Amino acid sequence: xxxxxxxxxxxxxxxxxxxxxxxxxxxxFMPVGTQATVKTLSVEELYKVNSSIILGNxxxxxxxxxxxxxxxxxxxxxxxxYKNPILTDSGGFQVFSLAEKKDIKExxxxxxxxxxxxxxxxxxxxxxEIQNKLNSDIMMSFDECVEYPSSYEYIKESVERTLRWxxxxxxxxxxxxxYLE
Length: 181
Hints:
Elements: E1 2-8, E2 13-19, E3 22-26, E4 32-33, H1 43-48, E5 54-56, H2 58-63, H3 67-72, H4 76-80, E6 86-88, H5 92-98, E7 102-105, E8 108-112, E9 119-122, H6 124-134, E10 138-140, H7 152-172, E11 178-180
Parallel strand pairs: 4-5, 5-6, 6-10, 10-11
Antiparallel strand pairs: 1-2, 2-3, 7-8, 8-9
Helix pairs in contact: 6-7
């Protein structure tokens, strides 16, 4: 994957992403396929609306159907029957938005499954492991999303932790998937 910035001004930027020898313009409309499907649209309809890249949600796919099921099916592209690129997020936002109680540590985040209350743990390495099994084209780095309002000190601490997590995820990743920090 290669990103090229073509034009930048103070209010916007325009560029291209090259994935598998095909060029996609940015910014772009990127439909969300939370659980390996874009609600209300078939794959054929996604092609008709010129969907360049779709987003798959790592957290939700981890819970249902599970990254091992997707991996056995041949990855998200075969699981979804979708030939264009797929980006998977890290799961960090879902931990922030869905987990009522979370314990954020340097090693990762301990929290409860929002569906059945079981205990879960996601680290930068676990997020990358899941995304590797999903076999998306672009993976995102596990991050901590902070609540608003938060103190300057906490936000600074969170950003620094997220940067350390990004390095750990990058060091852990041994796949050919593009990794965005």
